[in-house]
Amino acid sequence: MTPNAASASSAPSRRSSPSRRSFLASTAVAAAAVAGGTPLLAACGSSDSGSRGGTTSGKNAKKILPAYVASDVVTPDIPSRNGSSMGFTGKLDVATLKTSVPKKLGKGGKVTVMSPFWGSPPKQNCAYYTAANAMIGVDVQWQNQDGNTYDQKLGAVLASSDIPDVVVIPGWNMTAKIPSAIIGKFADLGPYLSGDKVKEYPNLAAIPTDAWQRSLFGGKLMGLPMPASYVQNIVPLYRQDIFDKQGYEVPRSAAEFMALAKEITNARAKRWACGDMKWTAFNTFGVISGGEKSLSWTVVDGRMTHRMETPEYLEALEWTRKLFAAGYVHPDFKLGKSQATDPSAKFAAGEFLIWNNDISNWYGQQAVQATQNPGFKVWGMDLWGHDGGNPVLWAANPAGIFAFVNKKASESVIRDVLAVADVTAAPYGTKEWMMTNYGVEGTHYTLRNGVPVKTDKGNNEVANAFVMVASPAATIAHPDLPDYTKGMVGWQQRMGAFTRKSSFWGLQVVEPSRWTNLTNDMEQLEDDIVRGHKKISDMQQYISDWRSRGGDKLRDWYKKLLDDSGSAAS
């Protein structure tokens, strides 16, 4: 599990990971994504297709996918390029916001939604939920669950017969038997959305086809997606204010980074160079993406290859281990506390200067410090090739969080869910987007110099709820800090120029259930190695054992899948 999961944020101020929406700008969520998905599920239902696994692509997918109709309601200030998000830098004129849902589609029914939530969820009758429900015409009843332990709750609910009308499932929670449970427990939305049927819901029709492709499970259109930029979302954030003051140069190779880390670190002065840089190492050494299991596989020199079988993988682990061994990494990360506590305060205090994190935290860190620490400036380093050349980067999937509708739901409930999704997928600059992301003017936000600023009530109530049902195309919009919008989109565009798509990019692959647990302890071993508790030779032995335990058979399965489905690589 990467510390991302998710997409660049379209709302000002989470986890990492994960939307790349407002809930992703909080570092507490970022930690959740890193830690999420580890406990295994006992049982949560299955189907024959789920046990055999597979994917849906080509002609079979084309018959199922919704038609794409680009939205012309608003025009971004920075168009998408090289797989980037689109960007909005201008201030919102609340008085002239566009309407993207002219007719209320909800029929007044009740819909229950179970979703991960980071923080303290508001009460059901809060002003935000009440106003949003009134706009949509649906009585949405939230069953928010702690995002840090969501996988455990998810497994229990899917194993029961009492499943809410809608269940949100992030990609990082799709472990063990979850994919087969999705196929067996949730509704086929194709009869409502495939082809031109989606045009009844214009904002859903404007969701990119790549994101819908990720919503195909067991040959059916089952998920409502949260689209994401396919550019890697882990950015080496750094304290540019301190770099400028001390005359530090941004590194352009693995060797330069190591030399800089030595220069920065002074343990007696309580200053270290960085946090755990493992995920940046994977990117700068060109390691095949590991965000989801299918992305770990691609064809290398004519052979189906898993990421951990490449020399770059071991080289990245060794480089990260040397950072730890030399004492350049903040002690909290050495002890593993970074996965349980929020390192933001120590980053803000200058105890460490470089922190790989989800791109949403580029804005998030700056926004938090902007008022209390005016001299603070966080910026993102361009990824470098480990040898000083151009990087070789691998694309993330174009959607990573999905909402599913209970298979037992009536047509009226499904229609009401789609009415909710059509509002929450509204683009930036619309009344619907404003309600979803900011709530009610005067109650949840006020305008300061044309920029919406959340009140305490807004911060407490308007957070990671409605955005989870469906989202517009990947968007970065921070009118309060427009230079950060430009910086983040520009970073994605530059990195996108070096980004490749692996063989199964964009496909929703369900592995055969007998092999789904093969690499469950791989990330723990990675962390033990970089912290010096295990050796590179332990990983080499692990890889050998993995091959004999089923890795080679899984390789054959992926090869056949590729032969049958065709490659997304380009």
UniProtKB/TrEMBL annotation:
<comment type="similarity">
    <text>Belongs to the bacterial solute-binding protein 1 family.</text>
</comment>
<dbReference type="Pfam" id="PF13416">
    <property type="entry name" value="SBP_bac_8"/>
</dbReference>
<dbReference type="InterPro" id="IPR006311">
    <property type="entry name" value="TAT_signal"/>
</dbReference>
<dbReference type="InterPro" id="IPR006059">
    <property type="entry name" value="SBP"/>
</dbReference>
<protein>
    <submittedName>
        <fullName>Tat pathway signal sequence domain protein</fullName>
    </submittedName>
</protein>
<keyword id="KW-0813">Transport</keyword>
<dbReference type="InterPro" id="IPR019546">
    <property type="entry name" value="TAT_signal_bac_arc"/>
</dbReference>
<keyword id="KW-0732">Signal</keyword>
<feature type="region of interest" description="Disordered">
    <location>
        <begin position="1"/>
        <end position="22"/>
    </location>
</feature>
<dbReference type="InterPro" id="IPR050490">
    <property type="entry name" value="Bact_solute-bd_prot1"/>
</dbReference>
